[in-house]
Amino acid sequence: MDDHRGGSFVAVRRVSHGFDRGNNYHSTSADVVAGSAAWIGRGLSCVCAQRRDSDARSSVDLTPLQEDSLRRLQSRINVPYDSTILEHQEALKALWKMSFPEEELHDLISEQWKEMGWQGKDPSTDFRGGGFISLENLVFFARRFPKSFQDLLRKQEGNRAIWEYPFAVAGVNITFMLIQMLDLEAVKPKTLAGAAFMKFLSENDSAFDLLYCITFKLMDHLWLDMRATYMDFNTVMKSTRRQLERELLLDDMSRLEDLPSYGLLSR
């Protein structure tokens, strides 16, 4: 993955009026303000991307099936988003269509993208934090769990903060955090969570995408529990990571669907 990822976060102000889609919130350019801390990127201040000493362990021996599954996932991780590739363009269009089926997208570079929580009118500038797989994760989430996806996109659940996290950029952060937490760029994972994840990955090629959905919903659940606002995003991500690590290491977890946080999702 690219070592030159970086950027600043944006805060999205939640309002309760002025939109045609009922009372659901969507940001506009007037509702997005720059923050002072780093939002995405290796070597920046996002605590979700930092490895703790307690995570480290000797790398585990993988079965041939696990090695093959990990290589396939790494091949996805290593693909940067490229706006000149038709497949990438189509995936971005599909994401918009599933997000806002009632609104036609005017262009792949448009102010409309801010409604989804991108930092500007060109989402490709935000994908440097997670590559093409971060877009694939969002598309998978929208297709597999449309209700939960819409609930998070439109901030429909709970007593929300005045200043909310931007949905799309948060999604890229979650992809990045999971790659770091599971140590997926190593030949063999050296984290407890990464070693535990290998058994799920070898049995389900979509395991990373499914774990992404679980993580996004868990993050929002903790966000509401902590009554967080946008300046608390890193704190919420740290708590999300800790909870996810605990769940991955529980006994008798034969499928990702057995994780307690999977129950937060709805189709």
TrEMBL record:
Pfam family, one: ELMO_CED12
Name of the protein this chain belongs to: ELMO domain-containing protein
PROSITE patterns membership: ELMO
Provenance organism: Kalanchoe fedtschenkoi
Ranges where the ELMO domain occurs: 87-248
